[in-house]
């Protein structure tokens, strides 16, 4: 897609973000959501600002964007904090900034990029992420998974994906990916950041089978987890697994988990990320 110049005087420039930009960036985000500003600040402190950029216009920082690569995947990335100062919105600057970022991801041979968007409907301001959604769609991102009531009751999460390499889209049956049957065990649960009452289970793969060793998780293991989350005040549980693990489906289904959708080619070509959810209000 051709990058169109925004309708502004001066030449906007995307440059790497430095620690000295942090206060301005936090202020830009804080205009929209103080929780997001706090979370972004903590993220920059904890995970650094590598692969993050600020948009400058006339020597002033007016926007931020960036990406983070996903370890253990084949060149998959997530779009990171992407915000434009309110006074500069609606002139094509957000799209320009995000297009420039996508070019940077292509430059490092990124294969696919995903972004999470909320459909929050503010009682006063309406759908505050409508501009973001419209921008991603105009950049040809496509909705792949919608998790109903993810952030809170009545607030869904949409995950949109964009293929960056020419060979990223192909028919499933063209790709033969070996199924794997490792031992998967749950090893904890937690409320998902930025949500009210949405939980997930942490899990690990144990490849070595001992004679009296651990078995794969069962429906009983899941039921214990469901109860623990419910007792903790949780509303819903969201789980994700790679698509090439056939042993997970029977216990998940038996415990009442529903398949929500997949992030296509998330791990590598032909290995998707399957999303499941369980509504605890039904038990
Ligand atoms: C999202 C954001 C970066 C977009 O930047 P922007 O400069 O306002 O948007 P642009 O002018 O570049 O417009 C990009 C596209 O979105 C469309 N768009 C912009 N605002 C819109 C709105 N309020 N409603 C519907 N469509 C809108 C434009 O028409 C344009 O589409 P086109 O390319 O098909 O013409 C900016 O609005 C912002 O910072 N929003 C608040 C923070 C936010 O939601 N961040 C994302 C969190 S996931």
TrEMBL record:
<dbReference type="InterPro" id="IPR016181">
    <property type="entry name" value="Acyl_CoA_acyltransferase"/>
</dbReference>
<dbReference type="GO" id="GO:0016747">
    <property type="term" value="F:acyltransferase activity, transferring groups other than amino-acyl groups"/>
</dbReference>
<dbReference type="Pfam" id="PF00583">
    <property type="entry name" value="Acetyltransf_1"/>
</dbReference>
<dbReference type="InterPro" id="IPR000182">
    <property type="entry name" value="GNAT_dom"/>
</dbReference>
<feature type="domain" description="N-acetyltransferase">
    <location>
        <begin position="12"/>
        <end position="163"/>
    </location>
</feature>
<protein>
    <submittedName>
        <fullName>GCN5-related N-acetyltransferase</fullName>
    </submittedName>
</protein>
<keyword id="KW-0808">Transferase</keyword>
